[in-house]
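Board notes (copied after class):
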Amino acid sequence: MAGINATKSQYFKGPGPIPDSAAKQIMADQEIGMWNFYGALYGPPPGMDTLWSVIRDAFTRVPGAKFYFPEDRKQDNDVLKHRAQTMRGVPRLTEYGFVNWVGGGGHIGFSPVSPIKGSEAMKQYTMVRDRMHEYGFDYMSVFAIGWREMHHVVELIFDRHDAATRSRAHELFGILVREAAAAGYGEYRTHISFMDQIAKTYGWNDGATMKFNNLLKDAIDPNGILAPGKQGIWPRRFRGA
């Protein structure tokens, strides 16, 4: 949340990721926890009341857990408020406000997918956090829960005007992709600069998925006019180039 309505320099001016002391100050200022969960309920009021009672009782078991509704939040630029407004169709603060966390506006999204299990979340969290800290970047992420899958959306934030930092970020991203693939995780989206690398991690059955994609590409778009290279799917004349 602090990445949306604050900058890193407000809490820490040194090199590398923010220390625990700065993280605790952010928690105090933003009235949030180290781990924060937000969601929405849909349907008629009686149904939502029933679901809310189940959710509340489940999370009450977590020591120190607190609950907030959007109207409970005090800051005008609070992320929870803006999420609630989005669901009601009201324009909100862009979720990409965090790109100015360190200045320079550079960011790459790393988004591996896993089963909806706490053990999988912790495995990915420690794996990615440790690598990002090793390379001097802050770990900033959200776990988005779907019907059958969990998306670990990690934002690698850097100053795109600093060549050394930009190069380090790209090197780190390549490592994250390789390590995630080795652990059995694939990304569901990425920056166009990394589409080829990520597409190659889906190599099951001698690359059956890409072979099928190429077959469709050649049949539907033989001249390679439509988005050549999107998702690592290239027209025949560019393959291997």
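Comment from the instructor: The mean pLDDT is 89. The beta strands are 106-110, 113-114, 141-145, 150-158.
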